[in-house]
Amino acid sequence: MTNSFDYAPQIPGLKFRTFNGEADYPQIARVLTASGMADKVERQVSAKDIAKAFQHLSNCNPQRDLLIGEVDGAMVGYTRGWWEEGENGVRVYAQNGFLVPEWRRKGIGTALLREMENRLREVASAHPAELEKVFQVNVSQHQTGTKVMLEHAGYEPVRHFYSMVRPSLENIIEYPLPEGLEVRMAEPDHYRAIWKAIAETSRDEWGHHELTEQDYQDWLLGELFQPELWQVAWDVVTGEVAGTVLTYIHHQENQQFKRLRGYTEGIGVIRPWRRRGLARALISLSLKAQREAGMTESALVADTDSTSNVVTLYESCGFQVAKKDTLFRKKL
Question: Is-contact 254 260, C-beta < 8 A?
Fold first, then answer.
């Protein structure tokens, strides 16, 4: 990280520093929660949550890739940077910044953004020069100040995503499976085949990158890995996976927000079985499984620019748009 902090506004007691390790976890959790509340983002995190998340960071070294702003020794904001593979060989250098509401619109957010850009340029300089490289920031619907800041810094919106909610799990319409398919409970012997199907169906998603063996192992150990809720359709002739809905319930989140919500995610259909009603049939089965598990609502995220017109599909299954997120980019 640069030491000059050329973009720092003149605020008494303000300084920028790098990560001090686990001693920073409580303040990071406080800033993240306060920022989320101000931006109408459902997020309540603890120091324990931060510690757990930081154990699974990819292409990010917090000692170098985390920049903290504090006033009179109290953390008021931070930004974390990392890189990832984007679509069509694009190398993405992303950051997420958070600032408590009482210290916004004073130049601190812009300073964090600019300084992290400098750090990410250093990272990018060690990567192949022939790659197309872009900065990226995700902005939620109510982060209007962040949107203006990014536009002033030369970023442009490139993709939109809806958070969609089905507010009730009553009146679920049953849709028949296409002929030649059956749904079976996912067993451990099936996990590799299901993972292979996920890798195949995700190829058509924007931002796709090749999945690795480590991705597979992390998937198996994830807290949202709940195969007892999955809906997996199998081709009765070939024995291969035809489509999936990898349903899950985020119990901790439900407890925090005092609700009973399941997630209809991991929706994918192998090419030969597309446009035959399979996705709609599996979504219906997923909603029923969530209801049987005691849930009263369901949610998912939809790419508004998907070539499969998924928003219309999900609306036909009872989901409604609740919030829009936007990815902003600029060339590095």
Answer: yes
**Reduced to 3 DSSP states, what percent helix, strand and coil does the chain have, rounded to the nearest 5?**
35, 25, 35
Rounded to whole angstroms, the Cα distance separating 165 from 63 reads: 38
pTM recorded for the entire structure: 0.85
- Residue 205 · residue 273 · CB < 8 Å: no
Q: Is 210 helix (H, G, I), strand (E, B) or coil?
A: coil
Compute how many other C-beta atoms are within 10 angstroms of the C-beta atom of residue 289. Answer: 21
What single-letter amino acid sits at 257?
A: F
For residues 6 and 115, give the distance between their C-alpha atoms in angstroms, rounded to a whole number. Answer: 8
What is the number of other CB atoms lying within 10 angstroms of the CB of residue 33? 18
Residue 119 and residue 81 in contact, taking contact as beta carbons nearer than 8 Å: yes
Beta strand 261-263 with 297-303 is parallel
The angle formed by the CA atoms of residues 58, 193 and 243, to the nearest 5 degrees, is 95
User: Mapping DSSP to helix (H, G, I), strand (E, B) and coil, where does residue 143 land?
Assistant: coil
Q: What is the CA radius of gyration of the chain?
A: 22
pLDDT in tens, 61-112: 999 999 999 999 999 999 999 999 888 789 999 999 999 999 999 999 999 9
pLDDT, tens digit, for every residue of 216-257?
898 998 889 999 999 999 999 999 999 999 999 999 899 989
**Torsion over CA of 306, 307, 308 and 311, rounded to 10 degrees?**
40
- Name the residue type at position 161: F
Phi, psi of 80 (to 5 degrees): -125, 135
Alpha-carbon distance of 327 to 298, in angstroms, equals: 24
Q: For 113-152, give one letter per residue: b (16+ CB within 10 A) or e.
A: bbbbbbbbeebbeeeeeeeebbbbbebbbebebbbebbee
